[in-house]
Write a structure and sequence with these properties.
The chain contains 13 helices and 13 strands. The chain is of the alpha+beta class.
Length: 310
């Protein structure tokens, strides 16, 4: 598995919130849904995306923006436009005083706005839970990622624009998969930019020693790895591997392995009905007790609580 494939193997939308917004000025929507990640693209007109910290970004037709939560932000027709609506958890939209707007601004299937023939159209796709997007992918992204049309040129955008307003059997699954593909395409294009700032572990994949160690851990997390066994596989001493790995990746080999194992366990707990005992052995723990202790220590909740949260 190459570094990029390992990074992008995580997006798995499940009933994602997808919406086509059609707006005419003046308009501005405050996003406070706390979602882990939201993808936005403009098909007509222009829109400003304004983070609470950082510079506003102008989105033009064909552009894509990926906003990483849970920090709020604002989308509007101007960078200083005062919010006229608020989107809260679950995609619930209200006025600033809390009055519901879902029905008042409904324009059709998954279509919402203040004018059916408005000059600006945005496609919005929101992942609702952290488990739908790999933690390492989230950690690798900036708070706001913007790619102009000529930097990614994704053919999926017109397809999403057509599919988002359809009401067909299985449409939710179709939209989930298209959203996953668009997110992957956007992130891949972002990493391909000249001077792109990849995370430390991603850059470390290019190192002949640490890169091999990372691939061994990622491809077989259930193996009973030790620093000694990794060092033997990579042809260096334990001290040399530990020092080089920590310097390039930012954490020791076994700490990295723990995070990788728990990320896999978290996905298995949400995506399968396997018992905690089975999941534990699949990711390299001796049993349910060992996995539960590590899960609670690192993630703050037990495996059962994590599964219930899905």
């Amino acid at each position: 598995m190459d570094a990029l494939a390992g990074l992008l193997d995580g997006p798995r939308a499940r009933g994602a919130f997808l919406l086509r917004m059609i707006m005419d000025p003046p308009w501005s929507v405050r996003i406070e849904d706390g979602a882990p990640i939201c993808l936005m693209c403009v098909t007509e007109g222009e829109a400003w995306l304004v983070p609470d910290t950082g510079e506003p970004v102008l989105l033009r037709p064909g552009d894509i923006a990926i906003a990483r939560g849970p920090e709020p932000y604002t989308v509007g027709d101007a960078p200083d436009a005062p919010p006229r609506a608020v989107v809260g958890p679950g995609g619930v939209c209200t006025t600033l005083t809390g009055e519901p707007l879902a029905e008042a601004m409904r324009l059709g299937v998954r279509t919402w706005g203040n004018a059916p023939d408005g000059g600006t159209t945005l496609l919005v796709g929101t992942y609702r839970m952290d488990g739908e997007v790999g933690r390492r992918l989230l950690d690798a992204l900036p708070r706001l990622l913007h790619l102009p049309a000529d930097a990614w040129n994704c053919p999926l955008m017109p397809f999403l624009g057509e599919e988002i307003a359809r009401d067909e059997p299985g449409q939710t699954v179709v939209l989930d998969r298209v959203l996953d593909l668009m997110l992957i395409a956007g992130v891949r294009a972002w990493f391909a930019r000249p001077g792109a700032e990849a995370p430390a572990w991603y850059r470390a994949m290019g190192d002949p020693v640490v890169g091999r160690a990372l691939r061994l851990l990622q491809n077989d997390p259930a193996h009973p790895w030790t620093v000694a066994s990794l060092a033997a596989k990579t042809g260096v001493s334990r001290a040399a591997l530990a020092r080089r790995f920590t310097a390039l990746v930012g954490e020791p080999p076994m700490a990295y392995l723990t995070g990788w194992r728990l990320a896999h366990a978290a996905d298995l707990l949400r995506e399968t009905d396997a018992t905690v005992e089975t999941v534990a052995r699949q990711v390299g723990y001796g049993g349910a007790f060992a996995l539960s202790a590590a899960f609670k220590r690192v993630r703050g909740v037990s495996p059962q609580e994590h599964r219930a949260g899905a």
